[in-house]
Amino acid sequence: MLNTDTVQGFYERLICVEHDILSRFKALREIGRIHGEFYSDNWTFASRRLRFLPQSGRSDGFSRPIAILARGFMVQSIESQLTSGAVYGRLQGIRCLYESLGPEPERILSITKADLNRAVARMARIRSPATVYNRANNIALFMSYIDGIQVGHGGSATPLLGRRLNWKSNLKNPIRRSIEISAEDNADPYKKYSPSLHLALGAARARIRADPSLEPVPGYDLVRLESLAFAMATGIRIGEVCSLRIDCLGLEETTGTPFVRVATEKSKAPSARPVADVWGPAVAEANDYLLEHCSPPRQRAREIEDRGFTFVRESLADYRATCPADEALAVQLGVAGLDPRTHFRFEEVVKALNLSIKEFNKDGRFYEATVALPKIVAARLVTWVDQRMASWDWHLFSRRSDTRTRQMGSRHLSSSEVGDLIGGGGACLCKATWFIREFREFLVILSSSGALEGGGCDPSKLDLVRTSWARVRALALSRVGGGFCTVVNVEVLEKICSERYASHLRQHYQEIITFDGEGALKVGGSIRPGVPEKLSEHLIVVWDNAFSGTRSRGLIPRPILRADYYNYLSSNSQKKTIFERLKILDSTGSPFSITPHQIRHWVTTAIFRSGPSESMVDLWMGRSPGQSRVYDHRTAKERAEAFRERYLTDQPPNDYLGRKVRLWRDQGVDAEVIDEYLKSKLRVMHFVPTGTCSRELFLSPCTKGLMCLRGFGTESACPSFHIDTRDGAARAHIIALRDQYRAMLGALYPTAAGLAEVMRDELNVTETLDQHILHIRDVLRGCEQALSAYERGRQMTEGTGLVPLEVLS
Q: For the residues 631-640, what does the mean pLDDT come to?
């Protein structure tokens, strides 16, 4: 239970915060950034409605503390220039939190990290992982906002809650979870590498090519499947596929080799990736398809870049010139005071712009552009009566008196007759139940004033007639909306399109990953070199509904995004993958589920199997030296077979096995005998930080305690340890190990560096300390010998035309 003083202090601080938020809200409203009243449950920001209501649909708003803080968080978010979507998403997180905490006003004051974790767990039971991730992060931002509120000045300032929570959701992004390799992923290599990946993608492409009707809409599958040919052929990242230029495919003039221009991530300069012969036809076919299929949205992007969104109004004007609007629409717009040049019926917009009517429903993306009109019968009546009231020519439309109308005088005017006069038929007004009774009473008052007789109106009853009509008029126009009573405001539609287009581009260019001069990750900022600055210059441009599965293609173009591939290939709770739809199964009988990043692992492994050195693979894949080793999924036996070839050259590696091979050759041992020995010796190959190991560790544990370099260069060297003088990463590890052991030896034996080789003989190997010093000395000697082998390897490559390791790195 909270004591009274704590609660009172909290509300005093909250009042100070409320005054500040209110003044900032008014400033935003004055410049048109936001619309509505501060204490209203509904605000409008950038054509999006912000509702300060529980998600359960209850009409009562948030309790006061949450209500004030939620409004303050929204004001801060809008001041930070966030998009309407981001601001809306933040409010959704608060609504979820409120549902979990309940309406008790002081609940926010006693909130704990356990309460926040329960709110996330509650969402996880009813929401998709992606929704939970986004809303949990928005809750964390809201709590961070509250933590940052201080009331008071200087050292006397007090946190709003009297404490800080510093809560984080610690959830992983479910859409890109496969990019970050976890310990669980390392335990299961198939999460990083799928050996049958190419078969699954090939089967999907072949099925769709053979039967295009399998696509929900043209391009739904093939845009993504064809574009993956660039990744499969060259190993480029999926973000680099999204940023391909329209002229990305080129042909080398001298050799005729096709290549792909790539805005390389993690690099300051774009690169050209040669395409292997086996992939040439597939890449060319993919390029032709994407050039043709993406041409319409690419052309629309060019129109937007040149003339903005004027095409919306022009398309509607052309449609109306061919199919003029009916008289009823003109009447409805007239009584509503709307311009017919900027307001169009649903069916006009849908047909002229190839949209779906659902996009204008309450939950549709263009709902904010809709305007409700009065009912047609009401609009016609109001227009006709307004004309009569202005010209006062009622007698031209009245007839001889009828006692059934309860009207006075020699002439009368019934509601059914008015219905005929306004063009709706005699019974049309009778169906207008929301105002027909009041209209009949108006006719009685009109008759009593003498207006129907043609002799003018009794001055004493003129005000009564006008008041009665004003009431009927308001009632008639009060019922609005419905199929033929809703129009689209083109100006608002253009604004929504402009905001969505800007949002798509912002998301695309923020996904462009770059690195600063020190190798730190940067997202957004300046465009990476080689990335087209205009959407119309991209190879892959799609309509905004391209992957929604609906028949409507959408109105605006957008770039393809990473999420479009992850949702399509990797199983999640949001959409069915291509493999689930087509029932393409893996060896376990389950639908394939792969990630775009697994393609990088597959390509790297395929390149390694073709024979190039590790440094060349690093260079080809755009990685730092030694990084491709993590992507190498060859078996230990495959690596051993590739490594064995190095010992069959004229200059084998200068390690234990290499020296033995050279000795046997000098002694005249037959080459076939040496080859058989190497095959028996190099059955497997494992990577270690300082080189490679050919010992079958699962069958025969290491006898050197994994101290591979101890004794290197002597007869006591490990016969299973091998070095590659082209392996820059291993050399760096050896240097670091040498420096570490030098420091250890210096700490134990300060004069050790100046001692002669006789030091070994003077040590008492029965003493623990001397044993340790001898171990350190042997490792140091092995490091020095290995580094000497690297230097000799470098000297042997000089003048041979081989590229030095330093250049490659």
A: 77
d(CA 158, CA 150): 5
Backbone angles phi, psi at 480, to 5 degrees: -130, 170
For 150, list phi and psi in degrees, rounded to 5. Answer: -120, 135
Give pLDDT, residue 783: 82
Compute the C-alpha angle 140/145/147, nearest 5°. 90
Asked if 74 and 65 touch (Cβ cutoff 8 Å), the reply is no
Considering only 586-590, 751-755, 768-772, which range has the smallest mean pLDDT?
751-755
First CA to last CA across the chain, in angstroms? Answer: 64
Give the span between the Cα atoms of 243 and 428, in whole angstroms. 60
Instruction: Identify the sign of the CA torsion 95, 98, 102, 105.
Output: negative
The per-residue pLDDT for range 157-171, each reduced to its tens digit, is 888 888 888 898 888
218: region left, alpha or beta (phi > 0 left; psi from -120 to 50 alpha) = beta
* 8 Å CB contact between 465 and 445: yes
Return the number of other C-beta atoms located less than 10 Å from residue 801's C-beta. Answer: 6
Question: Tokens in use for 792?
Answer: 């000799």
Report the 10 Å Cβ neighbour count for 399.
Answer: 13
The shares of helix, strand and coil residues in the chain, as percent rounded to the nearest 5, are 55, 10, 35
Q: What is the model's pTM? A: 0.64
Establish how many alpha carbons lie within 13 A of residue 629's alpha carbon, considering only the half-sphere containing its beta carbon.
Answer: 18
263-266 LR contacts (CB < 8 Å, sep 24+): 263/512, 263/528, 263/529, 263/530, 263/531, 264/236, 264/240, 264/530, 264/622, 265/237, 265/239, 265/240, 265/512, 265/513, 265/514, 265/528, 265/622, 266/513, 266/514, 266/515, 266/622, 266/623
Per-position b or e across 336-366, b if 16+ CB within 10 A of its CB: bebeeebbbbbebbbebbebbeebbeeeebb
Cα(145)–Cα(73) distance, integer angstroms: 7
Residues 6+ apart with CB under 8 A from 726: 613, 614, 615, 793, 805
Q: Is 102 left (phi over 0), alpha (psi -120 to 50) or beta?
A: left
| Tokens coding 716 | 């006591």
Give the mean model confidence (pLDDT) for residues 708-726. Answer: 71
Confidence at 58, pLDDT banded by 50, 70, 90: low
- Residue 350 tokens read as 């849908």
Distances (CA, A) of 283 to 239, 243, 248, 556, 720: 18, 16, 11, 27, 43
What are the CB-based long-range contacts (under 8 Å, 24+) for 132-135?
A: 132/171, 133/169, 133/171, 133/172, 133/173, 133/174, 134/89, 134/93, 135/89, 135/92, 135/93, 135/96
CA distance 452 to 408: 10
- Whether 761 contacts 687, CB under 8 Å: no
Helix pair 310-322, 295-307: axis angle to 10 deg: 110
The DSSP letter of residue 325 is P
Enumerate residues 6+ apart whose C-beta is below 8 A from 277: none
Helix (H, G, I), strand (E, B) or coil at 35: strand
- 629 contacts 729 by C-beta, under 8 angstroms: yes
Query: Could you give the 3-state DSSP secondary structure of residue 271?
Result: strand
